[in-house]
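Re: Re: token formats

Sure, here are both.
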Amino acid sequence: MLGSGVQIALGPFKFLYQFMDPKWRESCRTIHLFTDRYVKRALDNRRRSGSKTLSDVESIAPYRQPYCLLFGIAEQTEDQLKLRNEILQAMMAAQETTAALISNVFFLLSRNQPVYQRLREEIFTLSETDLSQEKLQNMPYLSNVLKESVCFPLIIVFPQMNRVALVDTILPTGGGPEGVDSIYCPARTGFDTSWYNLHRLESIWGEDAAAFKPARWETFNPDYWQYLPFGGGPRSCLGQKKALVEAAYFIVRLLQKSDRIESRDDREWTGQ
């Protein structure tokens, strides 16, 4: 992840990083070899089936589920490099993001004891051996805590989204004094969408937009494009459910063992 971040910072000179850190290049080679094994299995399955079905997924270890993301992508293309890149992106997306979300949750819980105690009361309706995905996803207050934490201005999972127009295009809205007119964007125009600012707009979230209030979600129901912690549309984060379930499981297990949590640092957050 560090290597990827440095390359983004280097911009057009990102190719230089492979000479700056030989260990990073060797690590990439190891990961590519590992991933390519599964890409080959997915393509072999496609060729054997002779159709766009996953009828023989069960016959190939270690895939034991009715549907596999890699097998699904392999239905669309036989490009091995594209398949490798897609599956690596899916794996990476739910690693650092999950850690950031969990960090947010416990930072906020340590400073909000009433929220911690209410969450713990809900968690104790489950047994320690009965933490299925379905039950984790049907805990309303835990869900509210996660919704509030994922976009809180601490370690934001997705603070912004950047895009560049490949061809001349026209955006249907966003222009003019009222933001309802179209905008002409020539090729190579850069776009920067700030989820950080979106999730702090008082016009959407109210005067307490900057406050940590999981209870707001008991009545708060933003429109689809007003709450985008994992992006939106067809390119929204594929790993969002994985990240939320992993975070929920970690939080539940820790709260089952800890009767209280406290912050030893009462300074206000100034990192963003």
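Second one below.
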Amino acid sequence: MPLKAAIASMSLGRAWVHNLPEKLDQAAAYGMAGVEIFYEDLEYLAKAQSGGQLTVDNQLAAARIIRNLCDERHLTIIGLQPFLFYEGLVDRKEHEAKIEQLKVWFQLVKILGTDVIQIPTNFLQEGITGDVDTIVKDMIEVADMGLQEKPIIKFAYENLAWGTFIDTWEAVWDIVTEVDRPNFGMCLDTFNIAGRVWADPSSPSGKTPNADADLQASIAAMIKTVDVNKIFYVQVVDAERMQTPLGESHPFHVDGQPSRMSWSRNARLFAFEEARGAYLPTLEVAKAFTAPQPKGLGFDGWVSMELFSRTMAEKDPSVPREHARRAAESWEKLSKELGCAGK
């Protein structure tokens, strides 16, 4: 399929401030063809059902409502995310609880009409192991479960730039290779790639010591190594350069939270928003995803604008519209740069 624009539901406003129908209205009005459903939106909708509790029945009811809302607006649901804190749990009772939760998610994605569950790399600061054999075993377990479903459910593993043990696309690719299942692949994100190898919000320069050379080496290795068939979708966003290093005295700092996570939660931007402070080499990374071989991976498919920002929690009712407008402007510029047209 050609490149098509999507947006993550929470990127249009946090669920406790902005209701999902309005967010989906704006996504459709500004030309998004697809939407990633952020579990937070489903959770809040579920709690609004009978009894006000997060029961399985209420979650399933919420999924049916979301599916109808998206169908009415001609929005394709491209995935459900994030299935948090799964791999490498030391307490195997906690692991079994996550497996039971996953069984509910299987029901949810079938109702939503999607076949993709996104798993971000674990960023718990304790209670997890970085042992590769354990992580691979955990991921084989979910992949094999997904293979038994009809239709088959796929898993998109994504490196978070602040992951405790796995924080690069290279480490994710190693896990994908070891798992070796057709339904276990990757979500590649310009922010989480450039934000790890090239940028450092705690540095006065905003960059890592060998940023440009390291990024070039990483991109070259990606193009040479990654099987494009293992990329289930990509995310393209940028981020603000911090005016002062994101250390303990910075207003975004949270005790016990890595600086890149604090940066991500507060200061992502849509691509090409340099006027708002965007500074990552987003286009360079995006071209590595989509350019034909040998200049890129040759990815075709969904491109999601997954934004996290302090602005998502602002109470101004114009937030969903404004974020949808900004996403549409970003997509228009990106599609021209990447040589594709329309949605």
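The two ends are 11 Å apart (CA to CA). The longest strand covers residues 76-81.
- S.
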